[in-house]
User: Fold these one by one.
Assistant:
Number 1:
Amino acid sequence: MSAPQQEKPAATEGTANTQAVGGGAGRPDGEPAWEAATAVVRVQRRTVRLLSAAQVIGGVGVGVASSLGSLLAEDVAQSETYAGLARTAMTAGAALVGVPLAFLAQRRGRRASLSAGWLTAAIGGFILVGAAVVGSISLLALGMLLFGIGSATNQQSRYAAADLAEPHRRARALSVVVWSTTIGSVIGPNLADPGAAIATTLHLPPLTGAFLLSSICMTAASLLLWLWLRPDPLLLSRQRAQDEQARTGGPRSPAASASMTGTLRLVGAHLRRAPRAAFAFLAVVLAHTVMVAVMTMTPVSMARHGETLTVVGITISGHLLGMYAFSPVVGWLADRYGYLTTMLVGQAVFVASALLSGLSGGSVAMVMAGLFLLGLGWSFSLVAGSAMLSEATPAGLRPGMQGAADTAMNVVAAVGASLSGPLMSGTGFGGLNAFAGILVLPVVGFSFLLARGGRRRTC
């Protein structure tokens, strides 16, 4: 039996009215799924274009944060001790806002949620400029916290692309939005020099120019979505799903009207009774943890071996290429061969990455190859896992589930990043990669249980 065939029986496991909310290729009576309607397809194409454009524009800020955040923190505080504050505060901001953003989407739609997220991140960027001008560490921390919301908004945009997608195109739609992040992540780190020129003209500290530009870009992304993301893809998909449920006599999901606490309880209950959703949730969280833990310490390891900042920069660029550039291919593979199969390929890529980096012995070529594969394994896991999570969750509960997954992903990754330093100090870069390789075992083990359950249901 092929991998896609193994997955089909499990598609409805623990999911209420999966066919009605777009979990299958068509309705039980043989008619096409509502996502295939001409009007819906037209809205979906426009939605993906808008989301991709917003990712390109707003993603510039995410790229600036990854390259210049620690430098700005060190410059404002006049101490290397505070350099890590940027990463910590931005990660905390992304983690804290995941569920509230999803709850806002659940109540008001993707348009309100995503535009609010980008605008809040832009305000954080303007606060960072002010922090640099007055030399305030407290303002710096607040600005970084709000600026990190841009990362959470960037992540949740991918789910909006899946709201109206046909079941057999869900991963591809999601992956196009993920790919769009590539452009912003490349442009952002290169804004240091143009930003410094603008800052000099405005009599501001040099590093603030890049953050000023990124805040303008995030504001533009917010306006783009607020003005033109109509009809709202989530609200339209929910209405279509409710119409289908009314036609078939299925029960309505209470999630859309639940409180935030009630939504989280429903999310927990669904994860307990829906193995496919639980598997996708676990795979996404652990994949992000593996990526962040190893990526955080790779520049430190390379510096210890005497590599220049230019070489380190090229290595990180290759890593970002692996993360984003091939996501449309990954999306096509996920839709063609199944989400479960694609995520298992991602785990194999993680193992190959750990072997190359862990056994590099200071070899730049091996570290570059290992970090590229680290990003590629993340892409396989995130794209397929996010699509599977959307498929395995009823329409009314999807925003809450997606927000919970992103929050867990950022929190666990932050813990992994904080532990990666002591772990490398105690066991070396090879030991850190070995630990990362071990983290694929829960995903592989869970996948076997999932496949076995699917085979039993077909017997």
Number 2:
Amino acid sequence: MHRKNTGWAGVKRIGIDEISKRKGHQNFATVIGDVEAGKLIEVIDSHQQEDIIEILKQQPIEVRAKVEEVSVDMWGGFPKVVKKVFPNAVVVIDRFHVMKLVNEELNKIRRQSGVSDRGSKFILLKNGKDLTAEEKTKLEEILKRSKRLGKAYEWKEEFRAIYEQPLTVEEGKRQIQGWLDQARVVYSEASTTIRNHLDGISNYFRNRTTSGAMEGINNRIKLIKRQAYGFVNFNNFRERLLACFSD
């Protein structure tokens, strides 16, 4: 059955994400949002690749052909969905998911280095340019204790700085490859994942598209869920969500 949904008109950049349907359950729905407008355009009662493709293909090809960029995390299924459903779109791996990957490995290195001071994790993961004078002093003390942690922190900041520059896709790709060649000695896990998704990560530099708007959409969905005390019927839940975002 064709799913009535007019939210797709003229949409060029979308984000695909997942939400848990019930708290504490590994039971996910897939959320599609217009990242430019910050609006929800579809909710799918599945996290399975084939189900997502089947539902999205119910939109006319002329609508799907207008989508130019799809921002996703590095979950294996989403890029395949984009390829099957949106013929003219490129996959953009969300920069915040990539930075999260680097930060998680940095935090692991912090623990391995025996740094457990109160607030040390926060200071190491915070953007260096946003640190207060007091935090900078604390950071210097922390980094003196471990050469490996010091290099890891330096490379984290270098990686973040790449994203801040006005680069072309090719320039961005070259800079990330250069970073990988150096940083892999410390960031073994993150560098492997980044290398495997390098094209999608580099596509960020086309238009600096991110899934940032998806966080706002997901937070609003959670609020609607709480206000409704949960939905037994998914179709009713979907209709309610789409109606709330069409205001």
Number 3:
Amino acid sequence: MAGEEVNPKAFPLADPALSKSILNLVQQASHYKQLRKGANEATKTLNRGLSEFIVMAADAEPLEILLHLPLLCEDKNVPYVFVRSKDALGRACGVSRPVIACSVTINEGSQLKQQIQSLQVSIEKLLI
């Protein structure tokens, strides 16, 4: 699994350590009802200005089904990042199916605020 080539269009790709913190936060966001799963839902949160950041799976097939998201993120100034595995992303989202994209949504009084902000910073560093 680890040696698999990742589609170069899946940029920026989180390294294993960052992926771990991202998936961890996604899991918590799911508990706090601050998570929308799936490319369509992620698109909606972006259009409505509700997204803190977007996580996408680099192994989505074909990757093109996701590639409108980075453009939209840039448009809306929302950080975005790829993790390697849609299966891992699905697990983090608390479902037994692969998830190719999800959006962590804004909630003003959220207990996750600090973690979300520090991850946004890490993700933005990847984009430079």
Number 4:
Amino acid sequence: MWHAPVASRRLRALCPVPGSKSESNRALVLAALADAPSRLTGLLAARDTELMIAALRGLGVGIDEPAADDEPVVWVRPPLRFAAADAGIDCGLAGTVMRFVPPVAALAPGSTRFFGDERASERPMAPLLDGLGQLGVRIDADRLPFVMDAPEHLSGPSVCIDASDSSQFISALLLAAPRFTSGIELVHRGASVPSLPHIAMTVEMLRSRGVEVDDSQPGRWRVKPGAIRAKDQRIEPDLTNAAVFLAAGVLSRGEVRVPGWPAHTVQPGASIVDILGRMGAEASLDADGLTARACGELQGAAIDLHEASELTPVVAALAVFANGDTTISGVAHIRGHETDRLQAIENELSSIGCRVRQTADGLVIEGSGAGGAGLEPTRTLRTYADHRLAHLAALIGLVVPGIELDDIGAVSKTMPDFTTRWDRMLEQTEGTAR
């Protein structure tokens, strides 16, 4: 249990955030597949990256322990030949691990077992496993847990899957494709692919390592076989994790600055800048970072989060304290994330008296205004083992007194020291030194 603190004064805080989970785990996979050792700086230290490191080690990759300092440096040494993981691969509840690692394991002839947390079997996997099957990998199930049996040489290059449930199915196959016997010609068939910026991140990181990727046709990706050049990389701050701190500054009617915000990025979390502006707040970038501040009361808005669905819980929290209705659309696929996020958000916001309903692809939230008029204090909100639901509850607790979280440990997935960072933020208010 964690008692969410109330923001009794306007925040005026500097809030550094750890490295991007999406970039960290892509960088680890590409370093494991590269033609020489790589150095990764600023790698996220959290459960998802720990699981990825353990998984790659199980396949024969050499990875140093991250240094315990403010800017960890990790060396990754690719193996001459990948080996099947005798002890199996624990994916936890991490989408990047359960989806990015099987294509790497397809390069390790023999059998590897994949398993995870209790809820891991609820996360979609079938399209990715079908794609690997088209390359000649035998798999005994269409979700976790499963055993895959990789051949000596993969077939290909043609693969056709339905990636409408997750962009990670595409990214997973693209990351390992240069090491496939014939590369890959990957085609998506189905409804639109969500979170396309995450695929753009994958393509950009591949190209920066000398890989030829043709994505000129929508829904089709061609990757030529060949070496992945080793590259030392500095990981960007996680902009989706940053969003909860920026939102806190706005809800306190103060401001929060996140240092190190990149001037150019493909991270979907950067969409929070536009979203804050559309809801009546302000976000400005300068050499010192990105600052979000309140500019009067928040206003409800129609927001399509198809490209940045991880922001849904933070946007939902802002919507609770806006004037008028907020419609969040384009996020039907988050019903298959760590939990059914749409149902969870509806459940928990309804429990404090907020009027909210699900639509086919999102939520409609009736705002209660800046002070949360009519909302019921002293409630326990559930996190569903989902770090983003913990962020939602923490933001609600800034305004509504007496909010408790049933399991703050959910934040270990991407920010184990979240409560320390949150408390440090709340110590910085108007009249205190930055």
